């Protein structure tokens, strides 16, 4: 299945939940509503045409107006790739955990919570692990984050 | 007798422990010599590479990302350049593609040699370490000849490579890959028949394919469990389709298979390098890219096959000269996450063998 | 013979054998300088170069340097790699566990002043000098094995010039 066919397939079968986003270069990018995330992911994994059995990566992003969580999925059997983006509000971002579908997501979600402050619902172990234990300076990957001993690179 | 039990106790392995390959802390709950529970703690090498990259130009990100996975720094250079090229649609000249493949594969060999040496050392054999690092130095010589660095190369740039190879590179490289290919046979003779080595590795740390896939395991570890998935072939990038090579697959998923698959991969990589040296032709080595170049706004997740599995970069550009978001994904991250699943209820000595066979390096996990 | 030349050695031919006279200080310094056992403390990229230096081609052993896994047996920490804020207390603990006299070599830009992670990093310790006292700094990112050897020889020279009792103050 190439990208065109995949896009057509997803739009016909998942059109109500996934909306195409043309920001994605090279691979397909779809947006999904935070409330639908888990059900859609479950379907994507079990759909016999897609079989997204492989969880590549999860990254958070902060655009200062909103947060984004981007799930990169792949299928080892069908050799296809797909990105899914969830858009979250800047106040109280919350997203549901997908670790029941892909156990691999566990640490990625934990990391996203730690560095971006995006809360994960139904996560079994939401504890600090990258920053040191006494860390109390907030969420360092946010764009507006600052601290007294944080030295910025001189402007280019 | 069978209902006699010893008291459980906790033991800290790391953060500074010779066999954790860097700084990883494993909190072990032990029952005698048996591991009851493993909890990995990471972050002792969290260097904020992603934050740093957000405040640098694209050209300046490459040396920072070198430090993200220093054992195969060429891959880090490559995956970032590839992502930036995909965003901006830059065409890379033919010769540069060949040079990239040669360097990537040489780096894969170097990394697998380190794996071979350190794994054997962790399990208790010091000689393979000295053998493997001896051969690795020849590859370091080749890199030094080309880009002047031994470890953090900054060689593959957006649009091509930074320098052309010198004249003496080609004969030396041919000689090196031929030697290493032979030496691998010697390594196999050195260890494979050794009864202690076999007892320590065969059947230890079995990982089945379903569990591996569920945890996002990739690279040699996944292929040692019988899943035929190699990004060089299945998510094609660069010019790997022009070479004739095999992708070794093993079925048992134990420490022994994970070790054998890497030795086989060294030989396959040697084949690729030799073919690339035959096919390479003269030409430009770099497309015209301004140092402050600005890719079009957009985002991509780019992944390549690294010696430790899938290495990916999620790159978002907002059309300015600095990337908006760089997320680096290393192969070791899911592997370390998987460790508790397969190391529970094994002996502590086997835990060391399993950990070594995963070839985890910590900067890739912590970033 | 090269070793003997460096010591102030007076030997006389007397019936029955030779007598070597020297001072306690020199013997002690000589012994310490030529058997610097180092702690395997590698955190990041520089650790790979440290490994290479210990292996076949560069061969640390010829300086009398053998790696030890336990700080209690080591005389020297080669701090190879980035020290983060999370790792810093552990480095201090390891240093405190070593027996006197103890030495520290800071290898690479990261241990000197944060290296490439000086700017924009929220988690990297900017140099290790305020955690533990450093004897020799080796710049580079990573330093070549040759520079590491040079650094170790410099440390050996420093040790040989030491007066008895110097190390007790440290
Ligand atoms: S000085 Fe450079 S090579 Fe050494 S640990 Fe720091 S970043 Fe890595």
Write structural notes for this entry.
The complex is a heterotrimer of chains A (156), B (367) and C (170). Helices cover 22% and strands 27% of the residues of chain A. With 156 residues, chain A is of the alpha/beta class. In chain A, the strands form two sheets. Chain A has a five-stranded mixed β-sheet with strand order 1-2-5-4-3, with helices on one face. The longest helix of chain A has 12 residues, at 3-14. Chain A is globular, with a radius of gyration of 17 Å. With 367 residues, chain B is α+β, with helices and mostly antiparallel strands. Chain B has one domain (9-365): Cytochrome-c3 Hydrogenase, chain B. Chain C has one domain (32-159): Rossmann fold (3-Layer(aba) Sandwich). Chain C is built from seven helices and seven strands, in the order αββαβαββαβαβαα. Chain C has a five-stranded parallel β-sheet. Chains in contact: A-B, A-C, B-C. Residues 44-46, 81-82, 108-110, 115-116, 141-142 of chain C line the site of iron/sulfur cluster.
The total count of helices of chain A amounts to: 3
CATH superfamily of one domain in chain A: NADH:ubiquinone oxidoreductase Nqo5 subunit
Number of domains of chain B: 1
Query: Which pair of chains forms the biggest interface, and how many residues does each contribute?
Result: A-B, 35 and 43 residues
**Sequence of secondary-structure elements of chain A:** HEEHEEEEHE
Could you state the order of secondary-structure elements of chain B as H and E?
Answer: EEEHHHHHEEHHHHHHEEEHHH
Q: Roughly what is the average pLDDT of chain B, rounded to an integer?
A: 86
CATH architecture of chain B: Orthogonal Bundle
State the oligomer: heterotrimer
Tally of helical segments of chain B? 14
Question: For the record, what CATH class of one domain in chain A applies?
Answer: Alpha Beta
Largest sheet of chain A: 5 strands, mixed
Give the percentage of residues in beta strands of chain B. Answer: 5-15%
Computed structural class of chain B: alpha+beta
* CATH fold name of one domain in chain A: Beta Polymerase, domain 2
The helical percent of chain A reads: 10-25%
Q: Radius of gyration of chain B, Cα only, in angstroms?
A: 21 Å
Could you say which overall geometry of chain B the principal axes of the C-alpha atoms support? globular
For the CA atoms, what is the radius of gyration of chain A?
Answer: 17 Å
Instruction: Catalogue the ligands.
Output: iron/sulfur cluster
């Amino acid at each position: 299945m190439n990208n065109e066919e995949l896009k057509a397939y997803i739009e016909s079968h998942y059109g109500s939940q996934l909306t195409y986003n043309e920001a994605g270069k090279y691979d397909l990018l779809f947006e999904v509503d935070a409330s639908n995330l888990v059900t859609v992911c479950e379907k994507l994994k079990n759909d016999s045409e897609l079989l997204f059995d492989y969880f590549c990566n999860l990254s958070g992003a902060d655009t200062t107006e909103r947060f984004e969580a981007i799930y990169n999925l792949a299928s080892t059997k069908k050799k296809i790739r797909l990105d899914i983006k969830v858009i979250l509000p800047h106040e109280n971002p919350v997203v549901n955990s997908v670790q029941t579908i892909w156990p691999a997501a566990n640490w990625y979600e934990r990391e996203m919570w730690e560095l971006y402050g995006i809360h994960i619902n139904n996560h079994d172990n939401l504890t600090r692990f990258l920053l040191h234990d006494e860390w109390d300076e907030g969420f360092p990957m946010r764009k507006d984050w600052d601290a007294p001993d944080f030295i910025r690179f001189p402007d280019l | 007798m069978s209902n006699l039990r010893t008291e459980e106790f906790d033991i800290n392995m790391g953060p500074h422990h010779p066999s954790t390959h860097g700084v990883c802390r494993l909190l072990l709950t032990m029952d005698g010599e048996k591991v009851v529970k493993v909890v990995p703690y990471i972050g002792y090498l969290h260097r904020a590479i992603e934050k740093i990259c957000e405040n640098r130009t694209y050209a300046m990100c490459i040396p920072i990302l070198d430090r993200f996975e220093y054992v195969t720094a060429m891959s880090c250079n490559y995956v970032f350049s590839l992502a930036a090229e995909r965003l901006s649609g830059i065409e890379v000249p033919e010769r540069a593609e060949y040079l990239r493949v040669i360097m990537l594969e040489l780096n894969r060999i170097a990394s697998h040699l380190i794996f071979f040496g350190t794994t054997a050392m962790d399990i208790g054999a010091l000689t393979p370490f000295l053998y493997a690092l001896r051969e690795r130095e020849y590859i370091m010589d080749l890199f030094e000849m080309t880009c002047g660095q031994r470890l953090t190369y900054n060689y593959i740039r957006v649009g091509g490579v930074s320098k052309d190879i010198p004249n003496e590179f080609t004969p030396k490289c041919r000689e090196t890959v031929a030697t290493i290919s032979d030496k691998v046979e010697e390594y196999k003779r050195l260890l494979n028949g050794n009864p202690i080595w076999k007892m320590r590795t065969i059947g230890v740390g079995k990982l089945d394919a379903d569990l591996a896939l569920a945890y996002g395991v990739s690279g040699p570890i996944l292929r040692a469990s019988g899943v035929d998935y190699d990004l060089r072939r299945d998510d094609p990038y660069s010019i790997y389709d022009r070479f004739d090579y095999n992708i070794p697959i093993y079925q048992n998923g134990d420490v022994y298979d994970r070790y054998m698959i890497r030795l086989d991969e060294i030989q396959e990589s040697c084949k690729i390098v030799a073919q690339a040296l035959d096919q390479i032709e003269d030409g430009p080595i770099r497309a015209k890219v301004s140092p402050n170049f600005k890719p079009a706004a957009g985002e991509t997740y780019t992944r390549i096959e690294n010696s430790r599995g899938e290495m990916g970069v999620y790159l978002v550009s907002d059309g300015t000269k600095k990337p908006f978001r760089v997320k680096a994904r290393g192969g070791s991250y899911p592997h370390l996450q998987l460790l508790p699943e397969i190391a529970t209820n094994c002996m502590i000595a086997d835990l060391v063998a399993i950990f070594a066979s995963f070839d985890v390096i910590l900067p890739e996990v912590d970033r | 013979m090269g070793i003997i030349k460096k010591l102030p050695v007076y030997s006389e031919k007397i019936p029955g054998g030779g007598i070597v006279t020297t001072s306690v200080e020199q013997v002690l310094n000589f012994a310490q300088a030529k058997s610097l056992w180092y702690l395997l403390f590698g955190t990041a990229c520089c650790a790979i170069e440290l490994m290479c230096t210990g292996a076949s081609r560069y061969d640390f052993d010829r300086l009398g340097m053998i790696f030890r896994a336990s700080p209690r047996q080591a005389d020297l920490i080669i701090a190879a790699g980035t020290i983060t804020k999370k790792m810093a207390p552990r480095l201090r603990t390891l240093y405190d566990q070593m027996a006197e006299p103890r030495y520290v070599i800071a290898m690479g830009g990261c241990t000197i002043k944060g290296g490439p992670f000086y700017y924009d990093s929220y988690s990297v310790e900017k140099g290790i000098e305020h955690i533990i006292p450093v004897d020799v700094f080796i710049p580079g990112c990573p330093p070549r094995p040759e520079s590491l050897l040079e650094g170790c020889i410099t440390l050996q020279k420093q040790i040989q010039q030491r007066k008895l009792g110097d190390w007790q103050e440290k």
